Amino acid sequence: MSADTEECADAPRDGREPLPDPAGALLDVREPLLDVRDLRVTVNGLHAVRGISFEVRAGEALAVVGESGAGKSLTARAVLGLLPAGAEVRGGVRFAGRELLGAGTAGYRGLRGSRLAFVPQDALSVLSPVHTVGEQLALAVRSVRGVGRRASAELAVAALDRVGIPDAARRVRAYPHEFSGGMRQRAVIAMAVINEPELVLADEPTTALDPTTQARILELLTGIRRETGAALVLVTHDLDVVAGHADRVLVMYAGRVAESGPVAEVFAAPRAPYTAGLIASLPRLRRPGGRLPSIGGSPPSLFALPPGCGFAPRCPAATDMCGRSLPEPVTEDGRTVSCHRWRELPSPVTGLFEECAG
Ligand SMILES: Nc1ncnc2c1ncn2[C@@H]1O[C@H](COP(=O)(O)OP(=O)(O)OP(=O)(O)O)[C@@H](O)[C@H]1O
């Protein structure tokens, strides 16, 4: 008997559950694939994510950008249901019509590793050191699709080949420690996309790599996204990555949304002074002989948040009111901004920071 007798020719292609349809009506295809509403994450008493809302549509790439500690990773992990011990989460996370928060691990059944995939910063955190890369890829396929050993092994080779690992048929027999850092991250991407997810969340997927490899891995992710039509949430602190790889951007500051909108519009005319400061500090905007503008100071401690806008102490446009009252996000023309003064500020707002640099 062949090892493939467990394979069922009539099984669904990948054993995925149909979309929930409790009312017996067709799911509204205009509904966002991912809908995050007023997400709040507290870790050991620290209010790290403080009311974040955003949507991701099918096939879209959203970059989540902000300084270290802004709450980017916790936001991504909350969507995936992978928060650290001691974390409490509130709000809504709706994926493909299914509410995930509050549903516990059952809510993620049939989603994680299948329709919802994760690419972490550190490949070794998801690759087992005691199994070959091929075994791990094949297991990922078998646990989701109704395919047998031979077919899953072939899909493992195809997956490594797809992410540009040369001699994939031989490389599948290697262990993760036998791969370079870049190749390991390619293997993790292969693992993430092997079951053709609808949404990939990538948390600074190239942080540990040299600049050339970083660029190649990001090209790979974008290429796969275009090829498969998967949506992408890309956590990064690099605005050049945002410009090159995302359709929309969510700028986070101290656990809140500073601004969000289409990348081209936000870059051309940011509305939040914080976004303007980030853009003004891009090296390519440096004037010949001029200093590189930068945002002075640092984000507030999440243990001692000011009553008003968290950016007010660093903002050249802040008034007394900014220090006193927290600006609520305002959405207009498909863009969201949290700033009391955005309508009255001079355009472009980046000028606030260029002047500061002198
Ligand atoms: N496991 C944890 N225990 C305690 N605090 C945590 C934990 N994970 C994150 N935090 C805190 O929550 C805040 C937000 O963390 P998060 O990792 O989401 O930030 P980030 O924007 O992704 O930063 P970075 O770019 O440095 O990864 C930070 O102040 C961080 O110290």
Automatic annotation (TrEMBL):
Residues 1-24 are annotated as: Disordered. It is a peripheral membrane protein. It comes from the Bacteria. Transmembrane segments: none annotated. SMART domains: AAA (SM00382). Residues 34-279 form the ABC transporter domain. Signal peptide: none annotated. GO terms for cellular component: plasma membrane. GO terms for molecular function: ATP binding; ATP hydrolysis activity. The keyword Membrane applies. InterPro entries: AAA+_ATPase, ABC_Ni/Peptide_Import, ABC_transporter-like_ATP-bd, ABC_transporter-like_CS, Oligopep_ABC_C, P-loop_NTPase. It is found in: Cell membrane. Belongs to the ABC transporter superfamily. This is Peptide ABC transporter ATP-binding protein. It comes from Streptomyces scopuliridis RB72.
